[in-house]
Design goal:
Layout (H helix, E strand, L loop, with lengths): L2 H27 L2 H27 L14 H29 L8 H28 L2 H30 L4 H28 L6 H14 L5 E10 L2 E10 L5 H18 L3 E9 L8 E2 L2
Parallel strand pairs: 2-3
Antiparallel strand pairs: 1-2, 1-4
């Protein structure tokens, strides 16, 4: 099992622990705002299971039906997580509306508040770890899980602050109002998560800085060629796919052109081991006199 799968599996255990603590906080206080916090943690657990399955599938080698690999499974997982977030937000809003119509007494007992604070601290530590390792591993699913946990931490802090204000002022309507605010925050994070994942599913180009490094490597290591044009890039999980046309002299031997291609590919792999390069060699009459000038 690779590091990504181990992180995803550990996220399930962390999510179950945090969920238990938040349910305890809700039961001991009767606060619908803390109910909303617990409902979001249910999504965290479901999402962690989805991330584990997606990371395992993404690590599978290419096969006959998927010759380019299974890396996009992580984007599908992130989209599913976004949908689960929307469902959780709807459940929170429904419970908040119920309490608006029939207010209930809340009690911020030390044990209840302590359980929620402990859950938030665990989420913050684990969320930061997922963000750091997910970016290092270039795993969209693990990064998405980390972002979701950090959103949960912000929601929890807001919930506790709002509940303290509700008790201090005696305004019981603040409890369901806080829950509504949490639901809207959850919806926003879900929308941003889905948006980022759709970009990967739609073969979004590599970041501008990555493309700049790719162009520089081609220009520097394509000695013997005339130019390179029609460069295209796309992301699929941790992999970056690169393809372009390389123009060489019409009378150049195939072996010489192949050596140039090998040299470029080695330079790109030195920059990023998770890169897949496809080069289409063309004779000089196909030159567009635009694109990448060979140094």
């Amino acid at each position: 099992m690779d590091e990504g799968a181990r992180l995803a599996l550990a996220s399930i255990a962390v999510g179950l622990l945090v969920l238990g603590l938040k349910i305890m906080a809700y039961v001991m206080t009767g606060s619908v705002a803390l109910y909303s916090d617990a409902a979001e943690s249910i999504v965290n657990v479901a999402a962690a299971v989805g991330v584990f399955l997606a990371v395992r599938l993404a690590a599978a080698p290419p096969d006959r039906n998927h010759p380019y690999g299974h890396h996009k499974a992580e984007y599908v997982s992130a989209v599913v997580e976004g949908v689960l977030i929307v469902i959780a937000a709807a459940a929170i809003l429904n419970e908040a509306w119920t309490v608006f119509r029939a207010p209930r007494e809340i009690s911020l007992t030390p044990v209840g508040v302590g359980a929620n604070v402990a859950a938030s601290v665990i989420n913050a530590v684990w969320g930061l770890l997922l963000l750091r390792r997910g970016r290092a591993l270039r795993s969209p699913a693990i990064v998405a899980d980390g972002k979701h946990l950090m959103t949960d931490v912000v929601s929890s802090i807001g919930v506790l602050a709002g509940l303290a204000a509700a008790l201090a002022s005696g305004e019981t309507w603040l409890d369901p109002a806080i829950a509504c605010a949490v639901a809207l925050n959850v919806l926003w994070s879900g929308a941003m998560l889905v948006r980022a994942s759709v970009g990967g599913l739609m073969d979004e180009a590599a970041p501008a800085e990555t493309e700049r490094r790719i162009r520089a490597a081609i220009a520097t290591h394509a000695e013997g060629a005339i130019e390179a044009h029609d460069l295209r890039t796309r992301h699929a999980g941790r992999l970056t796919f690169v393809d372009f046309h390389l123009v060489v002299a019409g009378d150049m031997r195939v072996a010489e052109a192949h050596d140039i291609c090998d040299r470029i590919e080695r330079a790109l792999l030195d920059q990023d081991a998770d890169i897949v390069v496809t080069i289409h060699v063309e004779p000089e009459d196909k030159a567009k006199h635009a694109g990448i000038v060979v140094l």
